[in-house]
């Protein structure tokens, strides 16, 4: 009997230990939505406009969408000519969820920008005419130290001009998709300025260095959705409706690009249709439509900002 | 009688000498219009659009005016974001009379540009955020060596991107009106690149250092006309009609500023009306009107370009 009691006690101990381990594992594995105070099956969405500062048309359409509540987060390109306009807006609207869209390329042809840092310190980032590279090819060598210097200059100019960013992300995903060294630059800047840098689990399979570079305190959101050039213009609303109806639990960033299909934007993007004026007008039209609001409601999708993610995730 | 003959001979000699001196003086003082092959009372006019490259709206309106024959010369701002668009046009239209509008200021608030040279080599030209100064105040110290470095970088970028300028001039007349040192920078660049730099006798009284800095081979045109903020919008056509009816003999540059009164231009210039979107639309409207063409004809005013001035004046 003593032996039985001893066995029972051992079993109880094992069960207790197992429960404790399980609880501990659950704490460790607490998902981002849970850290944010939601149930694990909650669908949280950041509706995020990219490329602010790039052109007046982008600024005007993005501000309109932010003010109408269609979009709840956005990020700003500091080297672009219209940065002062959006910086002025950000300064006078400190409640808006603005991040910095770290920029190492000047991807258009007729309308271009150079670096914020001194050109002779960031030569590997520049083309033969002194603009940020139009594109990176396999022969383009980007010096990570120069990238870091340039991006620090971008962040510093933003602060100096009154922007108080809530997050960082990367124009054309260059810092996520080009290799571990540039991703580590992004993480170093994120840590230094105490800002989350946009990374999602969706990218881990394609870019294994992301997971290995991230530390336990780095925010990683669950999913991202963005429309691609293979969607024909007439299928634009269908793509987004489908994406929202199939939204997975967790935190998702929906990356969109807003502008008006106007003279300035047409001229700036006329060499190709991708991410051009008409593309951005289609994004604007869908996200400012009542249909979009209705779908969020129907699908029980809650909006969340980077500010909330940064504030709450660090205290849990 | 011998004495009379002697006196007559002396008089003839004196008359001959006086005629020779007069002819020599006339050669030395041969006016620019005469050097250009016209009679001294000819009225030659450069209809010159400034600020190309500054915005798409400026480029579009200026190209339209150049192609319709309303305007026959223009100059380009290299540091501006839309420089690549106008450089591409200049490259594919080598017959057009394009100069470089040497730029040391970024005079707007919501839409700005930085230097072409490496920022840390031209610090005196930059404000605390790294843009070219919004304005120069009595406490702004512009280092002439840095100005020269920056302007050489502008000219070199223009050549590198396919522009073959016919002349140089100065945005906001900064190089003419700020003192001898900056004017000498302009002249050194003009000599080095073998291009005329826009100077007119009209400025000599206000800026005496101009005349003393100029050499005998520098082109100086006779007059310049530009509209000023004290002209009310409704008097715009009257100002120009009056100016053309009272045009003096010689070479005159009529300095105008073209753009459309559109969304981009309104946003870029919204902090003040001077040289703003509506101002530039009024210039566009007058100079593309049949009235302007008619007045040129009525007043027997001939158009001339900087290319013709540069080509012909150096061979006379």
Which labels suit this protein?
homodimer; 316 residues; alpha/beta; seven-stranded parallel sheet; 7 strands
Blueprint (SSEs and pairs):
The structure is a homodimer of 316-residue chains.
Chain A: H1 2-28, H2 32-35, E1 43-52, H3 56-67, E2 73-76, H4 83-92, E3 98-102, H5 144-160, E4 168-170, H6 174-177, H7 180-192, H8 209-213, E5 223-225, H9 236-245, E6 250-257, H10 263-268, H11 277-287, H12 290-298, E7 301-303, H13 306-313
Parallel strand pairs in A: 1-2, 1-6, 1-7, 2-3, 3-4, 5-6
Describe this structure in a few short sentences.
2 copies of one chain form a homodimer. The first copy, chain A, has 13 helices and 7 strands.
Model description:
The structure is a homodimer of 316-residue chains. By secondary structure, chain A is an alpha/beta fold. Chain A is built from 13 helices and seven strands. Chain A has helices spanning 2-28, 32-35, 56-67, 83-92, 144-160, 174-177, 180-192, 209-213, 236-245, 263-268, 277-287, 290-298, 306-313, and strands at residues 43-52, 73-76, 98-102, 168-170, 223-225, 250-257, 301-303. In chain A, strands 1, 2, 3, 4, 5, 6 and 7 form a seven-stranded parallel beta sheet that branches. In chain A, strand 3 (98-102), helix 5 (144-160) and strand 4 form a beta-alpha-beta unit. In chain A, helix 5 runs parallel beside helix 7. Residues 22-27 of chain A have low confidence and may be disordered. Chain A binds chain B through residues 56-57, 60, 80-85, 88, 109-114, 116-121, 128-131, 153, 157, 160-161, 260, 262-264, 267-268, and chain B through 56-57, 60, 80-85, 88, 109-114, 116-121, 128-131, 153, 157, 160-161, 260, 262-264, 267-268.
